[in-house]
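Researcher: Structure for this, please.
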Amino acid sequence: MEEALVELERVQTKILRRISELELSYPPPVPSSSPDTTGDDTEARLSSILRTNGVYDFSFKRVPSDYYDWPLEARRDVLGAASIDHLCKSIVLVNTQAQSDVIDCRDRNNSKYYVVVVQYTARFNAETVRNFLYTLNNGKIAKKKFNLRLAPEETSIKLTGFEHNAVTCIGMKTDIPVILDEAIAKLSPDFFWLGGGEIDLKLGIRTSEFINFVKPFIVSCS
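Model: Predicted structure, token format:
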């Protein structure tokens, strides 16, 4: 009997030692990361900027990840927009023929870059913007020095801080002058939708408040 107890104790000790070895062979569990709050941060940051600058009639809405695969009518419905004409986008343009000393956005009348807000239903007309800038500078700069083209995506991200399909002219890293298509300013009701800083975040805003805050050039460019 005594021999059996000794043998049992030996086996138990061996098992406990093996358990300890197994525990030491595995790293301690890594605490789960905190939830991703980037989207909430973006909305909160842009909301704060808007309210600080007297804009109160605005709304943010999350959209599904395949939003850009949808027809405009489906996008209109998920946002509750008044029409497909109220769906707009912000695009960053670069003046590829700017004078050699024009390298940034310090002079809004003769900037290296512009953000143009146009409707998805419209076709952007770069020539009308070219003519507008030429006139804005009283013809003192040759018209050939204005040649606006879509900026490379990496340039757009660097200047705005927003990736493709997320660009908005609110809270950009760089104070880029904005051109608003005149057709948007004439929309009724005067509440349009554009990018909200993230691909799946959209911003709806009262046109008059947008104009008062952003102070865009209003140009017929579509």
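Researcher: Any notable elements?
Model: Residues 27-37 have pLDDT under 50 and may be disordered. The chain has seven helices and eight strands.
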